[in-house]
Amino acid sequence: MPIKIPRLLPAREILEEENIFVMDDDRALTQDIRPLNILILNLMPEKEKTEAQLLRLLGNTPLQVNISFLKTATHESKNTSPLHLEQFYTTFAEVKHRKFDGMIITGAPIELLPFEKVDYWEELKEIMDWTKSHVTSTLHICWGGQAALFHHFGIQKYELTRKCSGVFTHQIHDRSEKLLRGFDDSFLAPHSRNTDIFIEKVKNHPTLKLLSASEEAGPFILSANNGKQIMITGHLEYEAETLAEEYKRDIQKGLDIHPPKHYFPNNDPTKQPLNRWRSHAHLLFSNWLNYYVYQETPYEWD
Questions:
Q1: Catalytic residue (choose from 123, 177, 237, 246)
Q2: Which residue in the list 123, 142, 177, 280 is annotated as catalytic?
Q3: Choice among 235, 239, 246, 280 that is catalytic
Q4: Whole-angstrom Cα distance, residue 122 to residue 144?
Q5: Mean confidence (pLDDT) of the chain
Q6: What secondary structure does DSSP assign to 27-65, as a single string?
Q7: Radius of gyration of the chain measured on its C-alpha atoms
Q8: CA 231, CA 145: separation in Å to the nearest integer?
Q9: What is residue 244's predicted lDDT score, i.e. its pLDDT?
Q10: Domains of the chain, with CATH numbers?
Q11: How far is CA 284 from the centre of its chain?
Q12: Which residues make up each annotated binding site for substrate?
């Protein structure tokens, strides 16, 4: 089934080349099915890349999905053209009267900043509070996940002595959870962050459920309130080259950085990395859309 996106969105061409089913408004009108309305708060600097990564996964299910992109009103993006933002993005003030079946809050490369020092933190807190009454299930990714853990559950992040970057093996801690239905006993996923959370605080929290973790990378997938809030500390949506691009960017900045672990063949940054997590990325997003959004959201919100 298709994903409905604006006709002129740059990611459309990328997705169509990969045989991802997309449609525009005209074709969507002929679909006699209740579409899911998904809101994406895109906090990543290179927004067009993140759009393609997320839409690729959201568009590979038997459900019709209507996508709306949200930007912060209190922060001006420096890496995405104002024309692109004006054409495809809206602000919270313009959508807060609506209810959405699902929402994604992305990561942001600001994890070394205290939450209270982020210039859009107050706006983000208002949005996260709003999701509790206006969104069936919200998926928080990387820094977005840490922000949710801090705001909703009081779990603070801490700075790592070395950046957690690479592709790590994860184990399942709760096989009964529908989000992990069909997952292998162990699976791979990329991480890219300078902060982490203490796994003991997650395990001891009365509301949080630890669904998956890695011995090297720490807590990975967490949920709360029957999946109304889902937090993922890594980046299953990443493409094969994303970590390599980040590594080259950090080298150009003069940072003392190590190559991503378990990523480059033979740990050689000159070799092409492989995407070894794609199937589980598709499975996680499919499970989320089906079990936590489609199966839980009312047909008529009113």
A1: 237
A2: 142
A3: 235
A4: 14
A5: 93
A6: HHTT--S--EEEEEE---SSHHHHHHHHHHHHTSSSS-E
A7: 18
A8: 5
A9: 97
A10: 3-159+192-237+285-294 (3.40.50.880)
A11: 11
A12: 163, 192, 249
| Alpha-carbon 162 to chain mean position | 23
What distance lies between CA 118 and its chain's CA centroid? 19
Q: Cα angle vertex 106, ends 102, 109, to 5°?
A: 170
CA distances from 19 to 16, 22, 28, 56, 130 (A): 5, 9, 18, 10, 35
Contact 263, 248 (CB under 8 A): no
Q: Which pTM value belongs to this model?
A: 0.91
Is 142 a catalytic site residue?
Answer: yes
Q: Is the pLDDT of residue 193 over 70?
A: yes
DSSP readout, the chain?
Answer: --EE--TT-THHHHHHHTT--EE-HHHHTT--S--EEEEEE---SSHHHHHHHHHHHHTSSSS-EEEEEE--SSS--SSS-HHHHHHHEE-HHHHTTS-EEEEEE---S-TTS-GGGSTTHHHHHHHHHHHHHHEEEEEEETHHHHHHHHHHH-PPPEEEEEEEEEEEEEEES-TT-GGGTT--SEEEEEEEEEEE--HHHHHH-SSEEEEEEETTTEEEEEEETTTTEEEESS-TT--TTHHHHHHHHHHHTT---PPPBTTSGGG-TTSPP---SHHHHHHHHHHIIIIIIITTS-SS--
What does the block give as tokens for 267? 């740990």
Instruction: Retrieve residue 205's tokens.
Output: 């929290």
Pairing state of beta strands 218-224 and 208-214?
Answer: antiparallel
Each residue of 197-210: pLDDT tens digit? 999 999 999 999 99
Q: To 10 degrees, what angle do helices 143-153 and 121-134 make? A: 70
Amino acid at 71: K
Measured in residues, the chain has a length of 302
Q: What is the pLDDT of residue 208?
A: 97
121 Cβ neighbours under 8 A, 6+ residues apart: 115
Provide the pLDDT for residue 61.
Answer: 86
